[in-house]
Design brief:
The protein is mainly α and about 300 residues long. It contains 12 helices and 4 strands, in the order ααααββαβααααβααα.
C-alpha cells in the first residue's frame, strides 16, 4: 500500500514538476504566467492528435512542444510587447485551448482521442538492479522516460538559473527592471525567454500526462495541475529545488486522493478535493509565515 502511494506520488508529481521547473523562470522575471494550464493542455492535446493520425511518437512530441512555444509567443507578445494584463491573457489562452480541443473532438464525433495500437508499456523503464530491490524497486523503477528526465531537469534548471548568464539576467530583470535597462540588458528579450522556457516544459508535461501515461486525451484532463504548479512556484519563491519539493507534496496529495478513493466506495468522489484543499492550506500557511517574517523585520505591510 505505502509503496503504491509513493510510486503514484512520483507519477502524479511529474507534470506538476515540469510546469514548476519552467514556470520558475517567468516568476523570477516578474511575469505571472497563468497560462501554464493551457500550455500543458495544448501539449496533451496535440501530442495525442498527431499520434492518432500518424502513429509517429517523435513527431507527436515535437508537435506538442511547438504548440506550447506558439502559445508562449502569443502570451509574451500580448503581455510583454503590448503590455496587456497577463492574468486576463493567461485565462484567455487557457479557455482558447480548451475551446479548440472541444471543437476538434466535436468534429471527430468523439469525447476523447484514444490510440489502441500503441501500448503505454513501451514508455516504461525498468531500471536494472533497482527493479529487483524490495520496496525501493517498486517505488523508483517502472516510470516513464519523461518522469526520470523531469527529476534530472530540476538540477539542470538550478544550474541554468544560478550559474548561467541567462539565469542571472532573468533574475536581474525580475528584481529591478529599470536597473537592468540602465546597464543595457534587453529586458523584453529575457522575459520572452523566461516565458518560452515555461511553455516548453508545460507542453512536455502535457505529453507525459496524456500520451506517456494513458495514450488518451480528454478535454480539460489537466484538472487544474497548471494552477497547482503556480501555487508550488509561489510557495517555493521560484527556487527550482524548493518549488519542486512543494510539487512533490501536491503530487502526494493527488496520489492519496486516487488510491484512498478505491477503498471509499460510494464516498470516493470526496477524495478528489484532497489536492485542492491541501493546496489552499499550504498557500495559507506559507503566506502567514511570510507575513510574520516581514512584520518581525519591521517592514510596512500592505
Amino acid at each position: 500500500m505505502i509503496s503504491t502511494i509513493l510510486f503514484d506520488t512520483i507519477l502524479y508529481s511529474t507534470p506538476i514538476i515540469l510546469c514548476v521547473i519552467g514556470g520558475n523562470f517567468a516568476y523570477k522575471a516578474n511575469v505571472l504566467n497563468i497560462a501554464l494550464e493551457g500550455m500543458m493542455l495544448s501539449g496533451a492535446f496535440f501530442s495525442m492528435f498527431i499520434v492518432y493520425f500518424t502513429g509517429n511518437i517523435p513527431l507527436a512530441i515535437i508537435g506538442a512542444l511547438i504548440s506550447g512555444l506558439l502559445l508562449g509567443l502569443l502570451f509574451s507578445f500580448l503581455g510583454i510587447t503590448c503590455k496587456g494584463n497577463v492574468i486576463v491573457i493567461g485565462l484567455g489562452i487557457n479557455m482558447m485551448v480548451s475551446g479548440i480541443a472541444a471543437f476538434v473532438l466535436r468534429l471527430m464525433n468523439s469525447s476523447n482521442i484514444y490510440v489502441k495500437t500503441i501500448n503505454v508499456s513501451i514508455f516504461k523503464v525498468n531500471i536494472p538492479l533497482i527493479d529487483n530491490m524490495p520496496f525501493i524497486g517498486k517505488i523508483i523503477s517502472g516510470h516513464t522516460v519523461i518522469t526520470y528526465i523531469s527529476f534530472l531537469l530540476i538540477f539542470v534548471a538550478w544550474l541554468l538559473m544560478y550559474r548561467t548568464k541567462l539565469g542571472i539576467y532573468v533574475r536581474t530583470v525580475g528584481e529591478d527592471e529599470d536597473a537592468a535597462k540602465s546597464v543595457g540588458i534587453n529586458t523584453d528579450f529575457y522575459k520572452y525567454m523566461a516565458v518560452l522556457i515555461g511553455a516548453l516544459f508545460s507542453a512536455l508535461a502535457g505529453v507525459n500526462l496524456s500520451m506517456e501515461n494513458l495514450m488518451l486525451f480528454t478535454n480539460n484532463m489537466t484538472a487544474g495541475r497548471g494552477f497547482i504548479a503556480i501555487a508550488a512556484i509561489y510557495c517555493g519563491q521560484g527556487k527550482p529545488v524548493t518549488s519542486s519539493l512543494f510539487a512533490l507534496v501536491f503530487g502526494l496529495a493527488w496520489a492519496l486522493s486516487v488510491d484512498l478513493s478505491t477503498y471509499a466506495g460510494s464516498a470516493s468522489g470526496l477524495f478528489n478535493i484532497v489536492p485542492y484543499i491541501l493546496m489552499t492550506v499550504v498557500l495559507a500557511v506559507v503566506s502567514i509565515y511570510r507575513y510574520k517574517n516581514n512584520k518581525m523585520r519591521g517592514y510596512k505591510l500592505e
